[in-house]
Amino acid sequence: MIIDPKNISKIYSRIVSLVPSQTELLYDLGLDEEVKAITKFCIHPDEWFKNKTRIGGTKNIKMDVIKKTNPDLIIANKEENVKEQIEELAKTFDVYVTDVNNLQDALQMIKDVGTLTGKASSALQLADDIEKKFKDLSEYISLKQKIKTAYFIWKNPYMTAGANTFINDMMQYCGLKNIITNGDRYPKITLEELPADCELILLSSEPFPFKEKHVKEIESQIYSSKIMLVDGEMFSWYGSRLLKAVDYFKTFKKEIEFIK
Description:
It contains ten helices and twelve strands. It is α/β, with parallel strands linked by helices. A hairpin with a 4-residue loop joins strand 8 (about 145-155) and strand 9.
């Protein structure tokens, strides 16, 4: 069944993670023996990526492999996994489905995972540390004059991060104003449709692996915007990676200061 951490008193000890950023969180909470399987996109930590059982991709999971691991908890995400596949798993297993759209959602998710896995104290400390670092970031970065920005996540067709996404929330902390606000979470867009006042275009390293050649392609068509490659994990991973994200954002801010 789909579980609500608020209504669960048991501690889970055989876990399958279907979300890369939450896999890394489980590792940082010290749950090595408890995590029985992960996806092929769970690249952090490297030793888990090399040695843990893999259950396919985030959107194409292998039910038979999951069943063989006999988990007592599956950790999934509303956005990253396929609803029908999760509902099928929930007929047999307890499934915790996270829904993370901003920093506060992420902090609550970290605490919930700690509660479910017997790591409540460690999770609370981690969440507190992340919250303090982001408070420091807010003081470091002036949010009064935000840079008008489009954050690209895909090519052929181009897709961007829209409003009501975790990426959008991270952009705000970086002093950026997302100019893609048409209501869709990840709208398709052509370069011709970019607002004329776009000052900065960010090309993410994931899910599409933008490279320098893609920067040059867009530069040949867009002349008024600065174009940069960015680490997508820092903008979109909502687990323990957030501790590292703040230092990355501070360095990133120095690189774009000349725009304003």
